Amino acid sequence: MTETHDIATAAEAEEAAALPRLYEVHSEDAACEGLDCVPEALNRPVASKSSAQWAYERLILYIQNFERQLDGEHEVAMGFTGSEAGVLRIEGMGFFDPDILTFYGSDLDGGRTQMVQHVSQLNVMLRALPKPKADGQARRIGFRLAEQLEASDPPPQAE
Q: Does a structural domain hold residue 3?
């Protein structure tokens, strides 16, 4: 039997080895400016990550940046566009290689909710919702997710 190898063009090889890049322009003072906001764990070549891990890590960045703009009376929630899933108050997030993202939380009525989504269908809207308890501090899931990402080595990718 002969072994087959994928042949990559120079452009494909360069793209796979590229480091992540973030570029945004805002009408007001941005809470975060470009790569200063990208956790070190995200600064690894794209080829070393599955689609699920890559989407998960970037979504953490967007959630964290969104939370930086919230006051103490609001928390981040996620609306799933293009579906009737409604809004999910984000309490956890994960991925299942190679291409599944999971979102854990509660709906507006307090019911436990989990959304499982293929990375090709990822289309979410971040929303600010009033925190559920008037006497407690607003929870910041984006910062907890980013801290966990920085504190651990990246999960090994299956071959």
A: no
140: domain range? 43-151
**Residue 156, φ and ψ in degrees, nearest 5:** -65, 145
Q: Are 103 and 90 in contact (CB under 8 A)?
A: yes
Containing 142, the helix (H) or strand (E) segment is: helix 141-151
Query: Collapsing DSSP states into helix, strand and coil, what is residue 71?
Result: coil
Q: Are 116 and 104 in contact (CB under 8 A)?
A: no
Inside any domain, residue 17: no
- Cα–Cα distance measured from residue 125 to residue 63, given in angstroms and rounded to the nearest whole number: 10
Assign 128 to helix, strand or coil.
Answer: strand
**Going residue by residue through the chain (159 aa), what tens digit of pLDDT does each one get?**
445 556 667 666 666 566 555 555 555 555 555 445 566 666 666 677 888 888 888 888 888 888 888 998 999 998 887 767 788 888 888 889 889 998 988 888 888 988 888 999 888 889 998 887 766 888 888 777 877 777 765 554 444
Report d(CA 132, CA 138) in Å as an integer: 8
Amino acid sitting at position 66? F
**What's the distance, Cα to Cα, between the start and end of the chain in Å?**
21
